[in-house]
Amino acid sequence: MDSLIETLGAIQNGDDNDQGLSSADEKKLINIYAAFDQDDYDRETIRKAIQMAVLKAIRVDQIQANYQITPDTIANVIGYIMAGVFHDKKQLSILDPAMGTANLLTAIDHQLQSSLGIDITISGIENDDAMFELAADSVELQKIHAELFHEDAVQNVLAPVVDAVVSDLPIGYYPIDANAKGFSTHSETGHSYVHHLLIEFGMDHVKKGGFGFFLVPSQIFQTSEAKQLLKWMQGRVFLQGLLNLPKELFQNSAAQKAILILQNSGNGAKQVDPVMLGEFPSFKDQQAFAKFLTEIDDWEQKDLF
């Protein structure tokens, strides 16, 4: 992972910052960098190349689960839902409060620009040093203008207020109880769930009537800690949808994730009836998958607005 970060930096700076190489190896590497011209590749190709390199680094270094990249299949589904929600927008601002390497954020940015043809501004927050560096390099190599914050979102970052928040949330407990105390979703006893805190942070940075699209555990409302999350939601946000992703994508049912769709109150927003609930069919079953997307389209057009 460190080598990848160093290489991406060298590509942009046009020099070699490697240490500990023989002069012959250093010269060889400089020649490789010199032969690479990023202008030969479109931004989506560069994003996918970085994604593949990160995936290899995760596998080789045996890095923890929270470093895992959101697969493009899932990013495409979230982007599809967002395109339907924001189909009439002329401009759109998006924030990811736990952006990781920014693969989800930049994939959705590309997808929405391609499908809607609108001006999109993106912002992201990431606390981990390595992931932030990879995100910053990826955004720069893709020539995307973005506002990135190397911060812990739970520590009250001065992030922008946006039209939509989107995030593949880290799952687990937040270790610093004092930082969580300012959140309505904090646990009464012991550590708080970081994904609950980040949902609250995200929706606090969405405009009135704006949306949040979060990848969360499918059982998010069935845990003992869900009480505080549901209490916070009342009167503040509308639960508009919860769509389970196909079980085949996960090692077991406990690891299954869902797309949670929330909408801030205000600006004419209302609780949709019915709430969009369901489970995506297998991505391999193209006919069933296309039918489910059509049902989402119908729900967005007839019920959500």
From TrEMBL:
Looking at the keywords, is Thylakoid present? Answer: no
Q: Which Pfam families match?
A: N6_Mtase, YtxK_like
DNA methylase adenine-specific domain: from which residue to which, for each copy? 70-267
Limits of the YtxK-like N-terminal helical domain? 3-57
- Keyword annotations for this protein? Methyltransferase, Transferase
The cross-references to InterPro entries, in alphabetical order and at most eight, read: DNA_methylase_A-5, DNA_Protect_Modify, S-AdoMet-dep_Ade-MeTrfase_prd, SAM-dependent_MTases_sf, YtxK-like_N
In the record, what terms sit under GO molecular function?
Answer: DNA binding; N-methyltransferase activity
Which GO terms of type biological process are on file? methylation
PANTHER family, alphabetized: ADENINE-SPECIFIC METHYLTRANSFERASE, DNA METHYLASE ADENINE-SPECIFIC DOMAIN-CONTAINING PROTEIN
- The protein's name is N-6 DNA Methylase
